[in-house]
Amino acid sequence: MPQPFTDDALAPPIPPAPEDVHSRVIDWFSEAARDLPWRRPECTPWGVLVSEIMLQQTPVVRVLPRWEDWMHRWPTPGACAAAPQSEILIVWDRLGYPRRALRLQAAAEAIVERHDGAVPADPQALRALPGIGEYTAAAVACFAFGIPEVVVDTNIRRAHARIFTGAALPGQTYTAAQRRLARDLMPATDDDGGRRACAWNASSMELGALICTARSPQCAICPVADLCAWRAAGSPPPTEEQKTRGQAWAGTDRQVRGAIMAVLRGGEPVDAEALLAGLPLPEADDEQRRRCLETLVADGLAQRRGDVVTLPGVL
Ligand code: SF4
């Protein structure tokens, strides 16, 4: 297990040598990494892709049961592509941002059509799938196929910012300078075909998720405490530009849409007026309720025929 560092540790060089940080973080990961099903050797590239889509803006603890259920029902892209949309949305349950579920199914359909049902390893081919952005393509290439793409999520951006630039937080936007830093920090791939680079991606992401968290970094047990530029600078608070906006939930359209979807996931056709009137959100006025139902229909997450509303494909 990593040894705790004390406050009187020697002041580090600023910024630290990337190789030193790589070794510490990768060694820490080998001991401390969570045992997640999509990290196990037997997990398929499809399982990795499903996990990456589900984990977008969603905590691991909420994803785990949904991922298990999804992979049990649809262990291959072909099985997912053939499933009714309504079932896809029911199994997505309350993971939030349910358009991700439909995009994941669209990606499965494209994998069947373009790649004979096998998730492609090539990052460009991954990027060309519906709903797959730069991050997800890089993460699947790296974690499923061992291809040393530069993987940068919010956890990695925060760890990079603190360790190497001394910033408290990386800010809202993924800047060109951060992109350069992430690329420059990647371990060389000449000697090992990229194994260390992929280990760096996974381990720095885990460090950001478990130790170098946004609100309360656990510097006392951090494996790079004596190398960290932010800590060496006295752990200054974030500037206004570095702060991220918290995502409100109560009173938002997201909350109202979520409440409508919760009713529709019952799987039965419902009367639109009764549905809207019965939402347990007293602060949501009639206009907001109607607007949210309309946007769900426009997004393909709900279907309306006259007075009746259902999940897509039910009527
Ligand atoms: S010492 Fe603290 S701020 Fe620096 S990387 Fe570790 S947890 Fe993050």
UniProtKB/TrEMBL annotation:
Gene Ontology BP, a term: base-excision repair
Record keyword Translocase present: no
Its EC number(s): 3.2.2.31
Swiss-Prot/TrEMBL catalytic activity: Hydrolyzes free adenine bases from 7,8-dihydro-8-oxoguanine:adenine mismatched double-stranded DNA, leaving an apurinic site
Span of domain HhH-GPD: 54-210
InterPro entries: DNA_glycosylase, Endonuclease-III-like_CS2, Endonuclease3_FeS-loop_motif, HhH-GPD_domain, HhH_base_excis_C, HhH_motif, MIG/MutY
Molecular-function GO terms, alphabetical: 4 iron, 4 sulfur cluster binding; 8-oxo-7,8-dihydroguanine DNA N-glycosylase activity; adenine/guanine mispair binding; metal ion binding; oxidized purine DNA binding; purine-specific mismatch base pair DNA N-glycosylase activity
Cofactor(s) the record lists: [4Fe-4S] cluster
Keyword terms, alphabetized: 4Fe-4S, DNA damage, DNA repair, Glycosidase, Hydrolase, Iron, Iron-sulfur, Metal-binding
SUPFAM superfamilies reported for this sequence: DNA-glycosylase
SMART domains the record matches: ENDO3c, FES
Family stated for the protein in its record: Belongs to the Nth/MutY family.
Protein name from the UniProt record: Adenine DNA glycosylase
Lineage, broadest ranks: Bacteria, Bacillati, Actinomycetota, Actinomycetes, Micrococcales
